[in-house]
């Protein structure tokens, strides 16, 4: 299997406890092998015609391409935002042992 079968998926939320809930929930459901929470970060964005600024917590999840659709659906349902940020980036290279661990931990 190539490294590209592993993805990092980023989402953000407005509170640390919500970020923790998203992280733990995704791991419990085996939709991600690992989740890292960073924050607070300052986000500047346009929403409904206005420029907004907010403090948010980022959750970076490690998963596989095969589990992405289920992770996206779960995040969309579990998330408190109307339009949550859910961005997936393929892993181009990485430690073979780590990538295999991600695949094992997200296997159905």
Name the descriptors:
single chain, 108 residues, alpha+beta, 4 strands, elongated
Please trace the helix and strand order, writing H or E for each element.
EHEEHEH
Indicate the mean pLDDT. Answer: 95
Please report the total strand number as a whole number: 4
Poorly predicted regions: none
What structural category arises from helix and sheet content?
A: alpha+beta
Portion of residues within helices: 25-40%
By DSSP (H or I, 4+ residues per run), the number of helices equals 3
Write down the overall geometry: elongated
Distance between the termini: 17 Å
Question: Can you tell me about this structure?
Answer:
The protein has about 110 residues and is α+β, with helices and mostly antiparallel strands. It contains 3 helices and 4 strands. The chain has helices at about 15-30, 65-80, 95-105; strands at about 5-15, 35-45, 50-65, 85-90. It has a 4-stranded antiparallel beta sheet with strand order 2-3-1-4.
Secondary-structure blueprint:
Blueprint: E1 6-13, H1 16-28, E2 34-47, E3 50-64, H2 65-78, E4 87-90, H3 96-105
Antiparallel strand pairs: 1-3, 1-4, 2-3
Q: What is the structure about, briefly put?
A:
By secondary structure, the protein is of the alpha+beta class. It is built from 3 helices and 4 strands, in the order βαββαβα.
């Amino acid at each position: 299997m190539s490294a590209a079968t592993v993805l990092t998926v980023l989402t953000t939320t407005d509170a640390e406890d919500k970020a923790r809930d998203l992280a733990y929930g995704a791991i419990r459901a085996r939709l991600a092998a690992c989740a890292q929470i960073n924050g607070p970060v300052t986000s500047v964005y346009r929403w409904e015609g206005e420029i907004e600024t907010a403090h948010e917590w980022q959750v970076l999840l490690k998963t596989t391409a095969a589990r992405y659709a289920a992770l996206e659906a779960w995040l969309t349902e579990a998330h408190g935002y109307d339009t949550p940020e859910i961005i997936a980036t393929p892993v181009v290279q990485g430690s073979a042992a780590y990538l295999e661990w991600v695949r094992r931990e997200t296997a159905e």
